[in-house]
Design a protein that fits this description.
By secondary structure, this protein is of the alpha/beta class. It has helices at residues 32-47, 69-78, 81-99, 116-122, 150-153, 161-168, 174-180, 192-199, 207-215, 226-240, 245-257, 262-273, 276-289, 294-310, 313-324, 342-347, 368-373, and strands at 2-5, 8-13, 16-21, 53-58, 62-64, 105-109, 112-114, 126-129, 134-136, 172-173, 185-186. It has 17 helices and eleven strands. Strand 3, helix 1 and strand 4 form a beta-alpha-beta unit. It is globular and about 60 Å long.
Length: 376
């Protein structure tokens, strides 16, 4: 049986429940209505004794290319900034619901995965990628702090690879996602129908059995230029482990002078285009995230994003320059890294100066994601 509610399809097959993101013309960008519908769907799955596992996928060329920023910013500018906060709160709560779901989720990432899509998939137990997968978190470069638990899962990648991904918005293919631990399995797209059939026959929530089913269709793809990739990781650790953004950029510039790979110049280009303030806020967020649980990370990202909506000029400026006028020349304030002081950064981590605002208090649930991400 298939039920279509807005842009979310739900298929019930024996003991598997398949959720299909179906906003194809928008690359399955997540609207607030989709978030609300997913809350309902996951809540129903948890209560259904016949539902043993969840399969999450997207139609078309994308799994999910992020959240609907147009809706988010329209509510924040046309109404009151707290309207955007409500959208944010619902999305963060969904990330937490996925992470603490009592039944395993298998995310099929056969296409573009960005922003909200990264959170929806990474917080689940199994992440299946293909040769068509493209993963990126470009929010910081756009003046936005990602509020999908990124400070949790990026900080748990090997070494300082998470800082590299978050500060530059660099793209990964499925092979590199598997190599760094963001993916658990690689299945060629031609085998996805076989995988789908196999998963729909599963009558258990046992992760070991589900993993074995996925293994039957999966492959260990050769990493292109394998030695170059691991050399890249060495350089990333050397540069992105530095204490400040200024130090990171200086270290990258030194590597660039050695005539190293083109990715370094691309990383420098992206970071120098980004908001100086948001770069520093994100670096502090991911560094603190290493010592926090998922609930803490999500609550802190919520607080940071609320500051961005209430007083964060750069948050709105990035949206204007990239999505509205599309001139790609944002007027960041402050305009240079040396003009950003600790007090400006720390403000994003402090309680809001608003009598009606309260911190996000997520319910205590069994945090399955901790054991999942520990495998990265």
């Amino acid at each position: 049986m298939t039920t279509l509610v807005d842009h979310v399809q739900v298929e019930e097959n024996l003991h598997a429940r398949t959720v299909i993101l179906n906003r194809v013309h928008k690359l399955n960008i997540m609207s607030s209505q989709m978030v609300s519908r997913l809350h309902e769907v996951y809540t129903a799955f948890e209560k259904d004794p016949e539902a043993k596992l969840v399969i999450l996928k997207g139609k078309g060329k994308a799994f999910c290319a992020g959240g609907d920023l147009a809706e988010y910013f329209h509510e924040s500018t046309e109404g009151h900034w707290t309207l955007g906060v409500k959208i944010l709160e619902n999305a963060i709560t969904l990330m937490y619901q996925v992470a603490t779901l009592a039944k395993p989720q298998v995310s099929i990432l056969n296409g573009v995965v960005m922003g909200v899509g990264c959170g929806l998939s990474t917080h689940g137990r199994f992440r299946v990628v293909t040769e068509r997968t493209i993963f990126a978190m470009p929010e910081v470069v756009m003046g936005i702090i990602p509020a999908v638990g990124a400070s949790f899962f990026l900080s748990r990648l090997p070494g300082f690879f998470g800082e590299y991904l978050g500060l530059t918005g660099a793209r990964l293919d499925g092979t590199k996602m598997l190599a760094c631990g963001l993916a658990t399995h690689f299945v060629p797209s031609i085998k996805l129908s076989l995988l789908d059939d196999a998963l729909n026959k599963v009558n258990t929530s046992d992760p070991a059995i589900i993993s074995a089913v996925i293994d039957e269709c999966s492959e260990q793809p050769p990493l292109k230029e394998r030695t170059a990739y691991y050399r890249l990781l060495d350089i990333i650790d050397r540069c992105f482990s530095r204490k400040t953004i200024e130090n990171v950029i200086s270290a990258l510039e030194m590597e660039s002078m050695k005539g190293a790979d083109a990715w370094i110049d691309e990383a420098l280009h992206l970071m120098k285009k980004a908001s100086p303030l948001i770069l520093k806020v994100f670096l502090k967020s991911i560094r603190e995230g290493r010592l926090q649980g998922l609930r803490q990370c999500l609550a802190q990202e919520y607080r940071i994003s609320c500051h961005g909506l209430q007083v964060g000029q750069d948050t709105f400026e990035g949206y204007r320059a990239i999505f509205l006028r599309k001139d790609h020349t944002p007027n960041w304030k402050p305009s240079r890294l040396e003009l950003v002081n600790d007090e400006m950064v720390d403000r994003y981590f402090s309680k809001m100066d608003d009598d009606e605002w309260v911190d996000l208090d997520l319910p205590v649930r069994s945090d399955l994601s901790t054991s999942i991400i520990a495998k990265l």
